[in-house]
User: Fold these one by one.
Assistant:
Number 1:
Amino acid sequence: MPDKHRVVILGGGFGGLNAAQALNQAPVDVTVVDRRNFHLFQPLLYQVATGALSPGEIAAPIRGVLGGQKNTRVLLGEAVDIDPKARQVQLKDGTSVSYDSLIVATGSQSSYFGHDEWSEWAPPLKSVEDATMVRHRILLAFETAERVPDPAERAKWLTFVIVGGGPTGVELAGALGEIAHHTLLHEFRSIRPEDAKIIVVDGSERLLSTYPADLSQKAERQLASLGVTTYLGRMVTCVDANGISAKTKTGEVEHIQAHTVIWAAGVAISEFGRQLAKRTGVETVRHGLLKVNPNLTLPGYPDIFVIGDLAYVTDDKGKPLPGVAQVAMQGGSYVARVIEKRVEGTSDFKPFRYFDKGELAVIGRGAAVAKVFGAHLSGFIAWLVWLFIHLLYIVEFQSRVLVAVEWGFLYLTWNRGARLITGQAASDSIAATTEAADKVRAAMRS
Amino acid sequence: MPDKHRVVILGGGFGGLNAAQALNQAPVDVTVVDRRNFHLFQPLLYQVATGALSPGEIAAPIRGVLGGQKNTRVLLGEAVDIDPKARQVQLKDGTSVSYDSLIVATGSQSSYFGHDEWSEWAPPLKSVEDATMVRHRILLAFETAERVPDPAERAKWLTFVIVGGGPTGVELAGALGEIAHHTLLHEFRSIRPEDAKIIVVDGSERLLSTYPADLSQKAERQLASLGVTTYLGRMVTCVDANGISAKTKTGEVEHIQAHTVIWAAGVAISEFGRQLAKRTGVETVRHGLLKVNPNLTLPGYPDIFVIGDLAYVTDDKGKPLPGVAQVAMQGGSYVARVIEKRVEGTSDFKPFRYFDKGELAVIGRGAAVAKVFGAHLSGFIAWLVWLFIHLLYIVEFQSRVLVAVEWGFLYLTWNRGARLITGQAASDSIAATTEAADKVRAAMRS
């Protein structure tokens, strides 16, 4: 018996996991390589950052998910380089993996548009660690405000700036609005959490710029009812310990004084994606996306498939597909079928076609916007659709039940069950933040 | 109207929280000071360390719990010193809090018997950060074993040593046994997780030395059925990257080769407890416990109450009370009543008497030992009692439901829903651990 066709999948996100699962019954050997031991339900990461969910509730151990799949092994490792001629992927620990077909699904990372130094003051929201760090900062800001006697300083601790008005920024802002107006109500004695200022800053002229315009307006109105201010048409020019500066279209520069800034803006492709582009010389577009063939292979490399946030694919009208879970998942299933057909000996297969089920963003309890199968929804009905869809796509049944319970309590009591300041004793953090702010102020005075 | 009697409670653990809640209706001003923003259900921390529960599920935000209590404020801060004459507690950030009555409930910390350097190789299990760190090490050990080709090295990655045969050590060992024999089954391709060696080392002649002897034996037998070995009458003399050395009663020194060691042994009083003893000059016994009056006040300081793990209190037969949640909780309620009576003008109140409801330790699914109201139970019935009691004492109803769901799935599927390797990409950790082990080996050879 000849050796089986070796499929190597880089990345255990929505794309990679779906590809692996779709190859369950195929006569191939599958190896899934990921840096982490768990699949993360990224669209709900902002709920970890706002204390509604625990990381474990939106993460599924990849081994657990694929454990019963006999043709599949899971490798904990980070792909750092590729030799497309030798059909080998190099891992960070010096070992390498050989493939007959390679599925690259290593996704995207945050980008600070060349200002990586901003990340110190404006953490991103990409990993579990990012989310617990953001949670730490948000909760600690209220705690510090409670302790700081100076009104100006207190106001800065109660101002939250979110850079980026896409789905993550909008959902994060909505959750912050709920925290200030509902969850923390009556919990403090010196401050009124509902006095918090929550500001979303974005360069485009409307929120959720990839959504239909009417939904953008509705999202803005729903956010406003939770006390969220929207600063549109502003490019952020500086982020530091005291807040941000932003430039309007007319060139005016505005400052927003705030001690808490969260980065929900720019996106860049993964490091491995960049390395792949370099080694294969394929054309890249926008923020480095790899231009792929209609069957999601790299031009000139029929054995390398690129799916998800990494690939530049357009729909029938030439509009590029968004970097969302749906696109990655459908890409994963599609390439699994292409590989299966090839192994069977049928090499011609129809090109990838994305079936757009819609787009959804939740703002708060009973508030959301959705475009579902072409229909524009908002408010309570959109919120129900959002709930249903998100519960449906959580990988593990167990997590689905846990998330449902957390949401049930959130709905009934506004309580966010996972409001933990971790990483360092909260009291030490207060001392540290107050001290850091003192230093910055001292430096500015001198 | 004169100012209200000021009660300051240091620590939001079982003792402090119970005291605060018992003062709900009292005509006093209550201030609860804690380093963390959450109350932690410590007896279940080992379940976080073994991936069964998420930290958020066993933590309750102190503000959330006490938010509705109008006479109470919560202060995020760490008490570092006290001036008992001026009735003032100094916090780490330089501020101070004045009291009329002080309740000290700052609890205990881990002790390495003067060998703090061991903590690098044998992390303790006291905080949420400790638990996620231990979880990281346990899961990563299996992942590393899967990658390491050398059989001897692989065996060391598959050996887990738990130092300490008290309730935490026993419960941790049982959970590890279940992970190896059930949870991880079929998830690896190069190793068999059930080959893992789990060893509990303790200085005394039996496990759970504070329990009745028949229950100790039953616990040992139940652990053995999960593949856990028990090394009793051994004092640990060394811990490093390669494992531990232990001395038997006859003076023989044994080495256990292992890359994962967890510290569930020694206990010491909190830093503030030590400072309090110094400032008041009260007598301390055993590992620094403060000897208190029958009404839990410090001798010579009728306005300072000490409760929980910090206090040395004996029962009718002169036997010291154990450092468990029940003792702390009952102490908290008791001193709340004493203070309330005093404020009312009745200063004589009956001495504190601990009502011993029993002791419980769980070993695995359907396996536990319990002494409940004098009866000795083991096996399934003890397990049911354990489940019921633990769910009952979880502070938030929401957490209770979440924990029940997690346990339901654990029971039905052996799945542990929170198996996340966090803190650093797992692949980096593998590289780091392998490298560190290489270095140690190289150093030993030279």
Number 2:
Amino acid sequence: MKIGIIGLGLMGGSLGLALKEKRIASMIAGSDINEFHRRQALYLGLVDECLDMEEIIQCDVVFICTPVNAIVDIIKNIKSLKANQTIIDFGGTKREIIKAIPKKLRKNFISLHPMCGTENFGPKAAFKDLYKNQIMIFVDIINSGEYQIDLAKNICIQLEMNIIKMDSKSHDRHTAFISHMPHILSYALANMVLKQENPQDIVSIAGGGFKSMSRISKSSGVMWSAVAKQNKSEILKSIELFEDELNIAKTLIQKDDFEKLREWMNNANKLREII
Amino acid sequence: MKIGIIGLGLMGGSLGLALKEKRIASMIAGSDINEFHRRQALYLGLVDECLDMEEIIQCDVVFICTPVNAIVDIIKNIKSLKANQTIIDFGGTKREIIKAIPKKLRKNFISLHPMCGTENFGPKAAFKDLYKNQIMIFVDIINSGEYQIDLAKNICIQLEMNIIKMDSKSHDRHTAFISHMPHILSYALANMVLKQENPQDIVSIAGGGFKSMSRISKSSGVMWSAVAKQNKSEILKSIELFEDELNIAKTLIQKDDFEKLREWMNNANKLREII
């Protein structure tokens, strides 16, 4: 089995390393629009060879691990596939991507979302255990071919991932809450501190709390602005719900109601029960 | 030298373990208003013995590691001290605490803020390396006695901490940005998700981003509501600045200006240069 990986950053590069370690493919090819990233990926051993787009799309299994806008563009340009070919996207949004799949090729496509990552990006950010013990969401899987579903499940199991199924609407709503909007919050926190007169002085005393809250503000703007575009309405909804919640705290502080503020904080502690 | 620790939670308990490991005191006494916590602290070996408040205040060095409202109450009740006694508070806010120090005893007091912690609390949360390699802020130290300053610095150096000096006004402003307000954000994120119809389903797919952003929402509401009360104006100011920044992102998304959103995100990446 020959596997192709389009997009050789954190996600695609780590996938290459993991597939190699598990000896899942006879050959792993890579492709990336950035020439320097192609060279880095080869140098770091993330893939065995680099191919251009027309060639890589001939592989038995093709993973698309680019920002979500590029996933849509790549998918739209696929005109024909062999019956047993499997195209798997790793996009962080799902409705727009699945809408872009040519109807006659629908069975060839598997839409996955690995719920893992770090704030680092590019080929150098790749590491072989990124996917291990993490969640892989299979989205709108009912419309994929049986052969393709079995193959994708098999690969995920070999990567030691935990599989969850979800429809694309729930996916885009849930991930706005759990991932997309929290990224926006972290970017806002970082930008707000950076705008102060003396950000170095402020940040020099940062403890674990600020480090946690600002970590994902170091993530790729190319990737996350594309996610914001494709999941606009759900992200706006969740930002507004967040603003309402923040406003509760602000009002309690303004009104000196620190008893209620403590209750509000204690209520948040209930998260301990589910995560 | 006999050291007393008032408040045997994460901060006080970890201090007890670290002081013991470094053999800094001949005897470490503890005190806590919660009887169960006193017993836990003895069982876990955080302190050598438990004393009541009147007794513990006789120790050569007394650390006050309670929530900030209790620090103020304790300090106000100290009527007399021997010349070489040293009272050190670990409060996360400073202006209100330092204001509460009786003027004639000012030299006996050292106001410190260790920039470390975890989301866990109570004696069971204590661990001996909490302070190692972390920052300790010495606040308004110019008004403390020379003997007390040397003693406090010496202990911090033995705990392998990095010392920074700051005045109380700058401290309260900077920590609002770097610590207090980010805690409010995390609590708001947790509460907002918990209010959804199916929080378990949403949280079940959480990756590293949500885990980072929600971690400190598990912190003690008793501690953080007291901080909010004592640093009200600075926290409200920083919440408003955060809201302005979040609003920039929201407006760019509403106006479909994803180019500018990407620039805004890329700008936040500059945090990499200073942290």
Number 3:
Amino acid sequence: MRQERVEPLSKAISGDFNYLAPAEEQRQAFGNMVFATEKMLLARMMRAIGNPPVQIVLWNGQKISNHDENTVARIFIHDRGALLKLVTDPELYFGELYSAQRIEVQGDLLDFLEAVYRVWPLATQDKIGKKLLAPFYDVRRNTLPGARRNIHHHYDIGNDFYKLWLDERMVYTCAYFPNPDTNLEDAQIAKLDHVCRKLRLQPGEKVVEAGCGWGALALHMAKHYGVTVAAYNISSEQVAFARQRAHTEGLDGQIEFIEDDYRNVRGEFDAFVSIGMLEHVGTDHYRELGAVIDRCLKDNGRGLIHSIGLNYPRPMDAWTERHIFPGACPPSLAQMMQIFEPFDFSVLDVENLRLHYARTLEHWLQRYENNIGRVTEMFDAKFVRAWRLYLAGSLTAFKNGGMQLFQVTFARADHNQIPWTRQYLYEPQRTPPGERHGNL
Amino acid sequence: MRQERVEPLSKAISGDFNYLAPAEEQRQAFGNMVFATEKMLLARMMRAIGNPPVQIVLWNGQKISNHDENTVARIFIHDRGALLKLVTDPELYFGELYSAQRIEVQGDLLDFLEAVYRVWPLATQDKIGKKLLAPFYDVRRNTLPGARRNIHHHYDIGNDFYKLWLDERMVYTCAYFPNPDTNLEDAQIAKLDHVCRKLRLQPGEKVVEAGCGWGALALHMAKHYGVTVAAYNISSEQVAFARQRAHTEGLDGQIEFIEDDYRNVRGEFDAFVSIGMLEHVGTDHYRELGAVIDRCLKDNGRGLIHSIGLNYPRPMDAWTERHIFPGACPPSLAQMMQIFEPFDFSVLDVENLRLHYARTLEHWLQRYENNIGRVTEMFDAKFVRAWRLYLAGSLTAFKNGGMQLFQVTFARADHNQIPWTRQYLYEPQRTPPGERHGNL
């Protein structure tokens, strides 16, 4: 992919540090003694995470690094408490301390995250600190009320905030860039079309959408593919917004936005689609989701699930799960199969769009930084920094293969009205959007 | 797909049956008493397999059917022993008894198999008789010597036999039909190209092929993509044939055919490919296969595994496993992931070519029937019937969704030189085969 770097972040951050002379150090015997232990813990942690090429600067100005040359960033640890938390569980506490400005990064945040990502052994990423903190690591469970709380935490923080950095249609999932330099607005439209074409929607068909966000896909399907849509979502802010849009666009006769859980889907449909909801379902509930699909999909129905995924099962990183996406747990492909296998669904196609999500996140992060003044007016400094880290960290994970994006297309086992090849997905659409209704 | 029916089979089969008059029955009191029990067992079996619309004719001419009208076939059971075996385990013994001509089918064999397939409850297919016969159901294990025995059983029965009904290149795996009416020769070339393009082979690269059959893919890769190939196979007849072909085509400098197990692959390669071997590996050995790939694939390497698969894990049907493919066990997608997940491989693309295998089998079965005279000269009647049933049964399973064909493309997690979209697979190749070398 084209390496379009976002603007360096936090270049300006630098404290006012007094570097202590060796003579001074001797006068602080007690402080230095503690410091020796702390340095040892820090060195141990650095080894455990693979010795990333960074320089650490402590609150007294002392610099620590195994890489005197070629460090990608300086990490300032501003107080002893921050250091002690960090060494206990860097995966969880780096984000917390960074958000609270008790740790700061001097240099390009993305370069820093990428450097850490490259060397951090995966086994350690999964284990470090987990044993100590196991009791606190329970992912917040996605029971019916639990799911509502979890979704509210992330999606109900204000539509105006998301408007600042999403595309104009407010699509908060991986876009599809026909070319790497397609702009974000077009790439989101291309994604909506890619999904609709994989589902082979026909005018007059009934579609159920589980987890419909701000309604962009439902609106697109109704407007350009002539289908009726039952769109479920448990985020009340999103549903209110989506209903308003459908009304404005005169599509409220074709789309019903239902503020309810996917488990309560009722009716029979020609297509089931879910874009970016599975991450919040929890692997424990996959069989339940499969049963919902089995119940509501007609014999000749088609389905598509689009979700962040992993190369192998592991929990979401602790900080993101705790502070950004409570209850979230992206699946491996084998885990995803727990939705399909018990019900004899045939997986027809899996497409991994990992680099498309990296590109999407580059756009989002760029827009976020471009609107940082507005974000700062809306939220406190901690929030601003946490979301910067979340966007930059996600971008790094997609770019480095730590996260995947799977689009899985499926149908019932004995359904033979399936495309002979995938060629049709790559042929130009015969009519432009807006004139397509009825021509497909 | 287009429903091109192969010619009806076994139309001519009909015995010389004397239908007994009711008065006659009374004179056979002892026979009828036994018969009542047998009828009960038969009725029970028919219920268990979903009451397919067939008429059964017993050795004394008595007809049994729940469907007086619209039966698709007549099944003749020629002796009491055959009936008793059949009711114990229809999945295993139907094939055995059919091959031995102790059971015969009057009507179109494919229509009969399809009718049975449609009504036979999947749960029963997996369980019926299995408990009773569990000790005998152990799949022949694919240890190093076990795998050799298993492969020898199927692939070393004579190249001349396979030549009768495969395409001219001797490709004994699912073809890829750009259109349903592409002929078999072209569809096999299209498959070889589809695989090479998914692997993005570049001239001068080194490819390892695990399970190379009669060498068609190795020859194609070397000739048209300019790569060198190390091709492994444990079927000695196939290896001898493949070496001869490479020599004839002047490609022996580019291809090494190695008569050895995939577990003994050594060296480093730009691409790993395996077409139709995984079915014989056994799920117990998937992690071992993953370790082989992990060991031999370069950092920027690409991989492709093409295999028959299932919508959910279950053993191969007992008759096929015992008499046709000892040790074979097609995986579900979740099971296949056991190859990739432990080694952090990224699955980039999964394509399900189920209907292409049905179409391939239609061609094979047609050619088999067209050459039935030659087959009869080579083998005994039992073999001829067993292979007819195997080809027809496989065709039915692919057509009805009982079996899948998965092509899985993968790479290492942090390998970003991956195609931006799959568009390139569906663009016309710029140069025809034979002139392509060096231009890709």
